[in-house]
């Protein structure tokens, strides 16, 4: 519900502050007094595009602020999804700077216009004679039927199920597409996999083979060097081993004389032990080194196989080949097990489809029950609004497809004249007829669902007499369930308001400005009397005005 609207430096308004009540609020005023400016300001604060023409004084910024009571609307999720602070008393502010830049805030948090526009549809419904295109929208027509049918929870459940169903169908489609692609590559991948499988590659194998090849290719040099080293170590006359024995024996003689000599003897003994181990290793290595052409050939062939596979797969290391081996194994196994995975996914799709069909069937059943009631109420209201021959033909038929709100196709047809053919609303109904149909639908919706604040913008144009009384009654009845604001030029409607505002122009310091005031009871009598008889208010007009207000 709109509680308060503050406007500064907008169009013809210097500064204006309006508090609205629940029920039916009336706004009247002469043509050109600025009634449309109020709607423009409200549209601006709720996300409409703005430019510098919005500024009354071009060197000052325009500020429009609207206070809403959100306690009756389930908007917490919307605020969380858009990272906004939720408050039951929410303040929306819009600023247009002299530079032309625009800023918007919800509870002092900056917000982009797209979010603000989405929020607008949940807070305010501005209804004019020209805004009846919605009537031809099938989703809107379904929303009317579902409101009567109390289908809100069922449709919400269906939409959740449909989201899951569509997600599973997409996953199934991708699985099938991947299977088809993988099937085309299967034989080639299987060949590559078997080739690597047969190669039986081991970690670090390439490094070990290259080291072994290096040894085999240099056997003679290695043999010579090992023999020479062994001779230097174990020669009986000049070998290092023999010299160390002599050194150890010499130091052993004096090791008991001091700690220093004892340490020297110990260190030499350690070196001698290490050298003895080295000598043993040199003998083993020397014995083991021999030229083996068969082994050289085997190592060469193995390395050539590895090099060939690396070149084929365009990699530089054995580790990369092993990774490719694993990947190929997954691809081959994936194709071989794909049918099982696809069957399982298809089963999931089928299970969700069954549940979705059950919910859709319940929605259809309730819609079928609601349509006669909706048809009856619409035809009754339109008869009250001067269309006694208006008839509706509303039928639903089953659809094989899962639609956004169920599995029903809708034919929402209308005939304005007795014996006339039924046709689509936009083709057979005039602008005035569409306006009355929309008013009737909004009246029905107000009693069956929680609607946002509705603003009727002179929808009574071209209407008079008893029809205007009926429009006024409908607006009054709607205001029992929701906040209704009516901009009108008809005294019959103006008299029904819980509160009554008048828009007027006044000259200040040589400049024209629009203003608005809440009328007292006496002022309302005078305003309605003026609407009845013009500027020259007659005594009979005053009496009639009082009668209307009573």
Automatic annotation (TrEMBL):
GO biological process entries: DNA recombination; DNA repair; SOS response
Positions of transmembrane segments: none
Classification via InterPro entries: DNA_recomb/repair_RecN, P-loop_NTPase, RecF/RecN/SMC_N
Stretches assigned to coiled coil: 162-222, 318-355
Keywords: ATP-binding, Coiled coil, DNA damage, DNA repair, Nucleotide-binding
Chain ranges of the RecF/RecN/SMC N-terminal domain: 2-508
GO MF terms, alphabetically ordered: ATP binding
Record's GO cellular component terms: bacterial nucleoid
A Pfam match: SMC_N
Role description: May be involved in recombinational repair of damaged DNA.
Similarity remark: Belongs to the RecN family.
Protein name in UniProt: DNA repair protein RecN
Source organism of the structure: Tenacibaculum skagerrakense
């Amino acid at each position: 519900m709109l509680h308060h609207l503050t406007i500064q430096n907008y169009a013809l308004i210097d500064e204006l502050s309006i508090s609205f009540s629940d029920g039916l609020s009336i706004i009247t005023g002469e043509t050109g007094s600025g009634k449309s400016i109020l709607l423009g300001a409200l549209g601006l604060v709720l996300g409409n595009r703005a430019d510098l023409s919005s500024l009354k004084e071009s060197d000052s910024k325009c500020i429009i602020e609207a206070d809403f009571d959100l306690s009756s609307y389930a908007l917490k999720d919307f605020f969380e999804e858009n990272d906004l602070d939720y408050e039951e008393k929410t303040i929306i502010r819009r600023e247009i700077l002299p530079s032309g830049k625009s800023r918007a805030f919800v509870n002092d948090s900056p917000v982009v216009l797209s979010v603000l526009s989405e929020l607008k549809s949940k807070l305010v419904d501005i209804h004019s004679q020209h805004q009846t295109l919605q009537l031809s929208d099938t989703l809107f027509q379904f929303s009317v039927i579902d409101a009567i049918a109390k289908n809100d929870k069922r449709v919400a459940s269906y939409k959740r199920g449909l989201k899951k169903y569509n997600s599973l169908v997409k996953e199934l489609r991708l699985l099938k597409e991947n299977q088809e692609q993988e099937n085309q590559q299967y034989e080639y991948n299987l060949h590559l996999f078997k080739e690597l499988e047969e190669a039986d590659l081991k970690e670090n194998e390439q490094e070990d083979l290259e080291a072994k090849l290096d040894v085999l290719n240099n056997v003679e040099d290695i043999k010579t060097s090992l023999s020479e080293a062994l001779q230097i170590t174990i020669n009986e006359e000049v070998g290092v081993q023999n010299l160390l024995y002599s050194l150890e024996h010499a130091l052993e003689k004096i090791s008991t004389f001091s700690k220093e000599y004892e340490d020297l003897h110990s260190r030499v003994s350690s070196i001698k032990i290490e050298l003895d181990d080295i000598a043993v290793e040199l003998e083993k290595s020397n014995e083991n080194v021999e030229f083996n052409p068969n082994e050289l050939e085997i190592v060469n062939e193995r390395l050539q196989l590895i090099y060939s596979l690396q070149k084929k797969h365009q990699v530089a290391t054995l580790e990369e080949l092993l990774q490719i081996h694993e990947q190929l194994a997954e691809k081959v196994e994936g194709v071989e097990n794909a049918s099982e995975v696809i069957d399982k996914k298809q089963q999931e799709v089928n299970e969700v489809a069954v549940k979705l069909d059950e919910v859709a069937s319940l929605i259809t059943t309730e819609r079928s029950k609601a349509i006669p009631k909706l048809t009856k109420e619409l035809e009754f209201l339109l008869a009250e609004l001067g269309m006694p021959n208006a008839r509706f033909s509303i039928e639903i038929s089953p659809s094989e497809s899962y639609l956004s709100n169920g599995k029903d196709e809708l034919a929402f047809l209308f005939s304005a004249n007795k014996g006339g053919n039924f046709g689509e609303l936009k083709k057979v109904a005039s602008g005035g007829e569409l306006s009355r149909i929309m008013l009737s639908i909004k009246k029905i919706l107000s009693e069956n669902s929680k609607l946002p604040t509705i603003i009727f913008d002179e929808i009574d144009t071209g209407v008079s007499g008893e029809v205007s009384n009926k429009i006024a009654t409908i607006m009054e009845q709607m205001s029992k369930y929701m906040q209704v604001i009516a901009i009108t030029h008809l005294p019959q409607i103006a008299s029904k308001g819980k509160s009554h505002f008048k828009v007027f122009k006044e000259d200040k310091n040589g400049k024209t400005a629009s203003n608005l005031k809440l009328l007292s009871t006496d002022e309302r009598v005078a305003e309605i009397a003026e609407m009845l008889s013009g500027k020259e208010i007659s005594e009979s007009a005053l009496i009639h005005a009082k009668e209307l207000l009573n």
